[in-house]
Amino acid sequence: MSEQLSRREFLASAAVGVAAARARDIPFPMRPPQPLPPSRWAAKPVAVSSANGLRAVQKAFDMLLQGADTLDAVIEGVKIQELDPNDDSVGYGGLPNADGVVQLDASCMHGPSKRAGAVGALEGIKTPSEVAKLVLKYTNHIFLVGEGAKRFALQYGFKEEDLLTPHAREVWLHWRANLNPTDDYLDVPETQDMSVRPTGTINCDAVTPQGDISSVTTTSGLAFKIPGRVGDSPIIGAGQYTDNDVGAAGSTGRGESNIKVCGAFLTVEFMRRSMKPTDACLETLKRVVQLTEPRLLGPDGKPKFSLNFYAVNKRGEFGAASLYPGSYAAHDGKEAKLRDTAYLYERPAASR
Ligand code: GLY
Asked: Residues near 29 by Cβ (< 8 Å), separated by ≥ 6?
């Protein structure tokens, strides 16, 4: 070891071999890993995600330290949820549309190359985030939907699979039975409140030690949606957005309310005007409330839905905000843990 090479630098360079080996596990990597010795870090590496992304931020952060590309890191992070049958808001195991068919949406942006990719209403493929990455990497387009998106995925070696798990089928059948008291499906005892439909999703945003930024959002969308509906997740500027000079942002929650304010783009624009990530997320939520139609507001004027924004900036600062108290996952260099979001309103006691 040369006298100039610190122990940390030596360990970082020794990690190159390990990282190169692991890179072979990443399908279609954006680039081979390039670990950076800590003395040359330009930014504080960080990974931020929605509350279901604790494993995602751990995975993404580990990959950032191994020198992985920023987009490869966030995609490998969210794939954990996409492949998990127990997360019924994302990928395999996601709740289906009104016809009982799982239709998935995803989008991503890669700061260093200024590229974007997305898929909407994709059926039969467990990991739409990866397909969005392939649209970004290998095509002149940004957004593929439906049958074309599936054919595209199959051409790259993805397997078509049944995404409806027994649990998701049971929840869907229960919803359908209780939908209309006059239809031919007999109501089943209402063991759960089906009036509030889940809108889970996962967003993950990361900054590498080089200061490169990426974002990805992937979802099975609003449960029992009208077939063909796409939400905010696959829409660049709504579900997620990255500007490598500024930062990245993403969203989970009621997609229709986010689409109208181009929330991820708006959050990045607020950060461009020097707002901290948390303040930028809160400001975007205020815009959402301004643009909410009366039918979606309670008697107290507060939204009857949930919506969350997550953000990181170029320096590795991060934050999140939601309409009502919530949590999000972040790895800040020390540990991956859940933190409280900033929020606009305490939920009124009457609506609990
Ligand atoms: N935010 C997810 C959706 O509305 O589909």
From this structure: 23, 68, 69, 72
